[in-house]
UniProtKB/TrEMBL annotation:
Pfam families: adh_short. The keyword Protein biosynthesis does not apply. InterPro entries: NAD(P)-bd_dom_sf (IPR036291), Sc_DH/Rdtase_CS (IPR020904), SDR_fam (IPR002347). The keyword Cytoplasm does not apply. It comes from Chryseobacterium taiwanense. One of its GO terms (molecular function) is oxidoreductase activity, acting on the CH-OH group of donors, NAD or NADP as acceptor. Belongs to the short-chain dehydrogenases/reductases (SDR) family. Keywords: Oxidoreductase. This is Short-chain dehydrogenase.
Length: 263
């Protein structure tokens, strides 16, 4: 994507991006950095390529202790948090519908996709409310509206819950000075997704292009004809957390190249 000059519009802001070492989270962290923010990232494993401009906290955010650790380290190390991007999420449960899933599948998915943001919001909101300032972004998914029950039943349910929770939270804390927004991407072309396409192609003796078309067909087609690049999602998040989006709160933004079939 073309490089813009963001005029250091986030200069002086402290931002946290969960799952900021890979995929969309990495692109969001880079984008906030470009706009001048101090950016902290979290994941279970350190980033593959070290970037001295990003501050890394190792933590498993699917646990309550992991979330507490991040809140404590950020607030003791930086004194406050201005921008919280709850990006971490994903699905690793087996396909096959309801009967293939056990409690562990449901719990692990709900913990990472719904409870991690709930716990981090709870940890960071008091100081945002006290200062009457802050922005919280919840990265959901179009699957919150377009469930693919055969492959990602718990994930879609968790993301639907996240969208609903995000709206409720916005109603509660916007009058106290904190903006809360949901961003629901469609398919994103991450490194993990590239590897996954390669695997499908190998297993089905087809090309990567054919595998990509197969995934797009399963989604009902993507009018844009391709998945989003992580930087395209990051660019939108960068705008939403900036002062240019000062009146935006309590809404969900879909960024899916036209995938969702309804308005
Ligand atoms: N990719 C898509 O097509 C797509 C579509 C719609 C929505 N989304 C949403 O967009 C967001 C980003 O997805 P992505 O595909 O870009 O992610 P990704 O490439 O799979 O990266 C996931 C990130 O989260 C970290 N992570 C995973 N489990 C964790 C845990 N338990 N505790 C702490 N960190 C953890 C990973 O690092 P470690 O493994 O080292 O912990 C990594 O940094 C997610 O909310 C996802 O649901 C993605």
């Amino acid at each position: 994507m073309e490089q813009f000059n963001y005029n250091n519009e986030l200069s002086g802001k402290i931002a946290l991006v969960t799952g900021g070492t890979k995929g969309a989270g990495k692109a969001i962290a880079d984008r906030l950095l470009q706009a001048g923010a101090t950016v902290i990232i979290t994941a279970r494993n350190a980033p593959e390529q070290e970037n001295n401009n990003l501050y890394f906290i190792a933590s498993d955010l699917s646990t309550a202790e992991g979330a507490q650790k991040v809140v404590k380290e950020v607030l003791s190390g930086y004194g406050r948090l201005d921008i919280l991007v709850n990006n971490l999420g994903g699905s690793s449960t087996p396909a096959g519908g309801f009967a293939s899933l056990n409690d562990e599948d449901w719990e692990s998915t709900l913990h990472a996709n719904l409870l991690a943001p709930v716990r981090l919001d709870r940890g960071f909101l008091p100081q945002m409310i006290e200062r009457k300032a802050g922005v919280i972004i919840h990265i959901a998914s179009i699957q919150g509206k377009l469930p693919l029950y055969d492959s990602t039943l718990p994930y879609a349910a968790a993301k639907a819950g996240l969208r609903n929770y995000s709206k409720s939270l916005s109603n509660e804390v916007t009058p106290k000075g904190v903006r809360v927004l949901t961003v629901s991407p469609g398919w994103i072309n991450t490194t993990a997704s590239e590897a996954w396409l390669g695997e499908i192609a190998r297993n089905s003796n087809s090309t990567v292009e054919e595998a990509q078309q197969g995934v797009m067909n399963a989604l009902g087609g993507i009018p844009f004809g391709r998945p989003a690049e992580p930087a395209e999602v990051a660019e939108f998040v960068g705008f939403l957390v900036s002062p240019r989006a000062s009146y935006l709160t309590g809404t969900e933004y879909v960024i899916d190249g036209g995938t969702l079939p309804t308005i």
